[in-house]
Amino acid sequence: MKFRNFKMVDFVVYGRGSFDQLDEILAPHRKAGIPMIFLVDHFFEKKALASRVPLRGKDKIIFADVAFEPKTVYVDKIAAELKNEFGQVCGIIGIGGGSAMDLAKAVSLMMTNPGSSADYQGWDLVKHAGVYKAGIPTLSGTGAEVSRTTVLTGPAKKLGMNSDFTPFNQILLDPELTANAPVNQRFYTGMDCYIHCIESLRGTYLNEFSKSYGEKALQLCQKVFLQKREWDDESDDALMMASYAGGMSIAYSQVGVAHAVSYGLSYLLGTKHGVGNCIVFDKLEEYYPDGVHEFKKMVEKNKVDIPQHITKGLSDEQFDTMINVSLGMKPLWENALGKDWEKRMTREKLRKLFERL
Ligand code: NAD
Ligand code: ZN
After folding, report:
1. Structural domain of residue 126, as residue ranges?
2. Which of 11, 154, 188, 314 sits CB 3.0–4.6 Å from 72 for a disulfide?
3. pLDDT tens digit string along 77-104?
4. CATH number (domain holding residue 61)
5. Total structural domains in the chain?
6. 263 and 325 in contact (C-beta within 8 Å)?
7. For ligand 1, which residues put their CB under 6 angstroms from it?
8. Which H or E run includes 173?
9. Which residue's alpha carbon is at the smallest distance from atom 44 of ligand 1?
């Protein structure tokens, strides 16, 4: 048995209004004449948050286009433009949802590693530490703030740059930044966390480390999506910590069926991670009966829509593509169904599941 030696984020600050401390936090990482780059979710263009970014000297804000989940070509383009314009930068600060944070991690790594980010999609392929990087979530749920990966769609695959160089040097968790996120988006991203918890806690890889974080994150999700009468500041506070703990839980275990199937959807149809997981989880009563039952209650209570029939009319070839991508996620299946998962999840069975989505 080989145990994972998990590389964690170096520094964490948590609290309402902690965004105002950013200037002070970044100060020791600045170098004279070299800019700090703020990669900010395009949602915040012309919004108050953008004017609160502590710009100094040659610092620059780049508004990240997150209409689609991050692609390797986009990462390469931003890194190449920064090298062209400035030669070097002293840090990349990602402000936004999982997409903006993943972009920031990847661009930081591509400032010091040669070639294309597509060359590093996989496990432990990154050779050099990136430049200083910080993550500041404005949506809670993905756990991208704590993970050792950055999920990228490349020319050949959708796969992260998983490495010990990938985690942020600093994260700043300010729940105020998630206030006013649209109800559907907040729910989809929040459910990513809920699903992380269920898949981790019901998985065969479970251990006390993952369990302790997973149980806490689950409890916080239940509080905000089921028990509270209405959404308030306390909900934002709780969901931000749920995201953190859920991310810590899967870091030391694995996700499961919903993620494996949702990767297939997103590869073929471009379905975004949060909503894709919801579409799949909604149909997984056979694998996670209690979780799916509770999920349906959350959907009802929060009055959100889970899209239906999104695979209607797809060709055999398209179903095959999704099945191939999904079955390629071996550790996820093994965590969910055990070592003999291939006997339990056949191509035919998976096809039937995809047809129900
Ligand atoms: P997102 O980052 O894709 O953003 C979704 C939408 O919400 C965007 O339109 C964005 O502009 C908007 N948005 C962000 N903050 C907002 C706010 N405060 N108010 C209003 N709108 C806001 O969504 P997400 O669910 O946070 O992240 C999904 C991404 O994270 C995917 O690309 C997925 O691959 C990635 N991911 C990464 C990991 C990891 O470990 N690295 C884990 C899970 C998911
Ligand atoms: Zn997820």
Report:
1. 11-178
2. 154
3. 999 999 999 999 999 999 999 999 999 9
4. 3.40.50.1970
5. 2
6. yes
7. 41-43, 66, 69-70, 96-100, 102, 138-139, 142-144, 147, 149-151, 178, 180-182, 185, 189, 192, 272-274
8. strand 170-173
9. 142
